Amino acid sequence: AKLLGQPVTFLNDCVGPEVESACANASEGQVILLENLRYHVEEEGSSKDESGKKVKAAPEAVAKVRESLTKLGDVFVNDAFGTAHRAHSSMVGIALSTR
To answer: Which of 3, 12, 53, 88 is deepest in the core (most CB within 10 A)?
Structure first.
């Protein structure tokens, strides 16, 4: 916020109705910082639970997360070079014409 010279709104999630609403109703020039996608198993498709057991994301849940991500903006800019080659939802699941 200090470097931008304006407030930054932090949201406690990165997908879902509340995030979609906040992004859709943002004022011109407003900066919104979203929570990390990696907290959602749907980002990578699988994860481990607290006991270390592998958990796979349901295809319907992955589609829902990808649809929500697509609603958040008009342009997708990937600044995560280390994950650009991976088939994560944030890399391959955002259905925007400008990427």
So the answer is: 88
Tokens 């944030």, located at residue: 90
Run of H or E including 89: helix 89-92
Give Cα 35 distance to the centre of its chain: 8
Give me the DSSP letters along 43-81. Answer: HHSEEE-TTS-EEE--HHHHHHHHHHHHTT-S------G
Q: What is the DSSP code (8-state) at residue 97?
A: S
- pLDDT tens-digit map of 7-25: 999 999 999 999 999 999 9
Round to whole Å and give the CA distance between 62 and 34: 18
